[in-house]
Design goal:
Blueprint (H helix, E strand, L loop, with lengths): L1 H29 L7 E3 L5 E3 L28 H17 L16 H11 L9 H7 L14 E4 L4 E5 L4 E6 L3 E6 L8 E5 L11
Antiparallel strand pairs: 1-2, 3-4, 3-7, 4-5, 5-6
Helix pairs in contact: 2-3
Amino acid sequence: MSNRIFPRVFALSLVLGLFTSIATAQESNLRLPQLSAVTNDSNGASRLENDAIIISLAEPVGREVSSPLTSAPAVSSTTARFNQMLIAAIDQRLGSPYVWGATGPRVFDCSGFVWSAFGSAGIRFDRTSARTLWTQFAPARDDEKYRLGTLVFFNGLTHVGIVADEHGFYHASSSKGVTYSTFKGYWAGRIDGFRRIPLPAEQIAE
C-alpha cells in the first residue's frame, strides 16, 4: 500500500511546486518596480533608475512647432512687413477726394492712389496710367488674385484698385474718393484682371 502512495505523493508535490513557481513569477511581474540607484539622464537631471518615465507630447522649449496653420508655405517676413506698411498707407488716404491726375498728398485719382500707397509702403515704380500698370506687371496667379496688395483692373483697363481680400478692394472712386468697395454687385462684372507687383527685399524701404 505504501509503495503505491509514495509515487502519487511525489508526483503531487512536483505539480504543486510547479504551480507555486508560476504564481510567484506572475506576482513578481505585477509588482511595482522598487526604487534603486540614482542616475543622471542625457540632460544631466538626476532620477532613480526605476522611476516612471513620462513621455511628453509637448515639443521641447525653443523648438519650432509645426501645425496645420503653418504646414502651408508661410508668409515671408518681407511680405508681412510690406502688408503692414501698405495697410497703414491706405488708412491714411481713406476719405481723400478724387481729382483726375492727382497723386496726393490729399487728393488722388485711381492710379495716383495706387502709386502713392505703394510708394509709402516702400515699393517704387513710375507714376503712370492704369493701362500702363497693366502692361508693366505680370498677371497674378490664381492664389494671388485676392491677396492683399494685388492690383485689380476694371472697365477696359481705365480703372485700378488694390485688392484687400476676396471680398473687396481699395480705390479712388470718382464719386466717393478713396474708399473700400466690395466686388459683389457692380464691380464684379467689370473686372478685367489682376496684376501682382513683385516685392523683392531690396525694394522695401528701411
